[in-house]
Amino acid sequence: MFRRPARRLPLLLFVVAVAAAAAFLLLRGAPRGVATAMPERGTAIEAVYATGTVEPEIWARIGPVTTGRIAEVLAREGDTVRVGQPLARLDDREALARVAELEARAAYWREELARTRALAERGIKAREAEQKAQSEYNQVVAAINAARQRRADLVVTSPIAGMVLRRDGEPGEVATPETALFWVGEPRPLRITADVDEEDIARVRPGQRVLVKADAFPDGGLEGSVDRVTPKGDPVNKTFRVRVRLPDDTPLMTGMTTEINIVTAEHKGALLVPAGAVADRRVMVVAGGTAASRAVTLGIRGRDRIEVISGLDEGEIVIVNPPAGLKPGDRVKTE
Q1: Which of 87, 155, 201, 258 is most exposed, with minimal Cβ within 10 Å?
Q2: Contact 329/28 with Cβ under 8 angstroms?
Q3: Do 74 and 127 belong to one domain?
Q4: Which pairing describes strands 317-320 and 297-301: parallel, antiparallel, or unpaired?
């Protein structure tokens, strides 16, 4: 007859619980991997960030004053043009026919006016007919002038002297007053036009240094200076327009998009740590294989790095983006 091992089950559960507790304590005491960095001496920069577009300081976007189909393009990109020079011509056949029709009517009423005036001068009762002929003739002349102006409006001319920087439009396409067919301006000097958030605009002043970044020049090193800030902001987008002057030898080209940082404060020789190392004015450091917390006094806060004025030694190892739950005294290891 076999006996059931009734007392072994509680003992087995106890062993499992002890093993789990031991494993928990062992894992809890294991060093946690952390990313670290060393504080560095460098230039702390406080800046206002914005995006902008490169454009000439003197330029004009040119389109037709009326809607029509492009009949002829008279200027190419790179051409130098003068004020009033035709750049393109819209189809004017209908306008030309209208002018011819009105000129024929004007000729008729001119002859009619001469005939009735001659009758009136000879004493024949033709004063009323003369007045009617004069009125009709005047109306036709006014209509001719208007038709000629409409025909003239079909020629797109340059309002400024300069170079054709860009052309958008080919014969056969329909152009409207909202269509920009040509960009005409001086290739140099260039500027950047950027929109700055209204929360930051109070810190922007003419003359401030501007750091410029463009995808075409990943090595950086591009600079400019604030030329002017528009007095009136955009209440819809809550931005103010800022013009950045570029040096004459800038490699940037018209139409390029840029990221700019307007330098509002600058400290050279500052102690800098990664922005991810600072939280609530404290920095976690590695001290003897464990995490320790340092209360710090901060200076300039940049996008990537923050200036530490006091509370941190230059040779200490700071923890960047500490893992959740990391506390002072926890064992850590550098990843």
Answers
A1: 155
A2: no
A3: no
A4: unpaired
Cis, bond preceding 189 (omega within 30 deg of 0): yes
Q: Do residue 212 and residue 199 come from a single domain? A: yes
Same domain, 70 and 174: yes
Which residues are CB-neighbours of 267 under 8 A, at least 6 positions away?
Answer: 43, 44, 299, 300, 307
321 and 282 inside one domain? yes
> Which region holds residue 225: left if phi is over 0, alpha if psi is between -120 and 50, else beta?
beta
Tell me if 204 sits within 8 A of 242, measured CB to CB.
yes
Distance of alpha carbon 302 from alpha carbon 78, whole angstroms: 42
Ranges of H-type helices in the chain: 8-28, 93-121, 127-152
Q: Do 146 and 163 lie in a common domain? A: no
Q: How sure is the predictor about 2, in pLDDT bands with cuts at 50, 70 and 90?
A: very low
Closest C-alpha to 51, from 262, 307, 284, 227:
262
Count the neighbouring beta carbons within 10 Å of the beta carbon of residue 208.
19
19: its two tokens: 């093993």
- 241-256 tens-digit pLDDT: 999 999 999 999 999 9
pLDDT in tens, 79-103: 999 999 999 999 988 878 887 888 8
What's the average model confidence in pLDDT over 189-208? 96
Q: What is the CATH number of the domain that holds 330?
A: 2.40.420.20
Query: What share of the chain has pLDDT > 70, as a percent?
Result: 90
